[in-house]
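tool_call predict_complex ligand=S-adenosylmethionine
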Amino acid sequence: MAEFKLIEKPEWGPLATFIPNKDEPVYNWIYYKEGFSKELVFRLAEMFSLKRGSVLDPFCGVGTTLLACKQLGLNSFGFDVHPVGVFSSRVKTRDYDTEILRQEIKSLIKAKFIHPHKLPDSGIVRRVFPRHTLEDAVFFHDQIMQIKNHDVRDFLLLGLMNVAVKCSYAYKDGAVIKVRKKPVPPLRDMLRRQLFRMAKDLGNFKTQECEAFADFGDSRSLPLESGTIDAVITSPPYLNKIEYTKVYEIEQQLFLNRIEGSPAVRSYIGLSLNRLEQDSSKLEKALNYGTVKSLPMETIPYLVDMFQAIEEMHRVCRNGAKLGIVVGNGCFPTGVVDSDILLSRMAESLGFTVDKILVLNKRWCTRNRTEKVGITRESLLLWEK
Ligand SMILES: C[S@@+](CC[C@H](N)C(=O)[O-])C[C@H]1O[C@@H](n2cnc3c(N)ncnc32)[C@H](O)[C@@H]1O
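tool_result ok
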């Protein structure tokens, strides 16, 4: 007997990736491999018949849900533990005076180069940049940090963050940064083009009067009142793909260490081993006795953390709230761990109704890169409180 309704929906597969956002103004101000698309949020809002109300993304990444909600006229609240995500979400969802932006861009690009007194000590930062590019990046960073208007400052900084990585030897491969020496384009030209393009984007970008709030926060304890959320549209870290904070080390170390209130990433889902024993008995109850014992040990911290995050979503949602959650299954040498099913079981045990699971993408899970051990699904979980 099938426990949940699993429905194949491959035509929505690309929407679970960031790729469609690459051609979307404002959404594409920073590339986030782990992100999903604006179109997915639009379709879920339509499926949930959301006309007004408050949408939560407790793992907001670079703010795609929040920005899409701003276009749809829905209030949104986003939280993430990653400084690159929270910073980008804020910059993308603010309102700007484009005339002021253009003037500031012009004076930044015209600024006469002065050799910076000090270059960053960080090993990775030094390795991924040719010296003259690093000097340019530090020079522009120093200029930007002197700007009193923080909205303008952050807008320029996001543009610099975006192009600096393109003008480096860094190559992001899964969870690691590799160094690939190659000719790099001149940073000043790239920055000018990027910033004017961003300012132009704003001219054609239609948003509505509503709140888009992004802040640092742990999805397992949200600063929200109970029963206040009408819908959740989100995507948590995927099992055994949890440690990608390192991939954004350059952006973080080079540009965000002087932005107020950027904490170090500590409370990442799947890393905590706190109170594991006490919490895994709760998990055991939610997943049917025997399931936990059959899972690879390394899945337990993830599942315990996700249990708490789902419990928290349940607390903040009002009765009747709809949830759309994109998640990928885990691939281990011993086989596939079906996170879509396990998280849905937890949801049911916490009081949600699992409407259905849409299967968006499927991939082989291999052992030693060649031997197939199963198929992993990337699924959209549709729940209701
Ligand atoms: C799959 S990504 C979400 C991407 C997002 N949907 C987007 O389109 O940009 C998962 C996010 O969860 C965040 N995260 C991990 N642990 C968290 C926690 N305890 N609380 C809040 N966010 C967390 C990560 O930093 C990451 O940005």
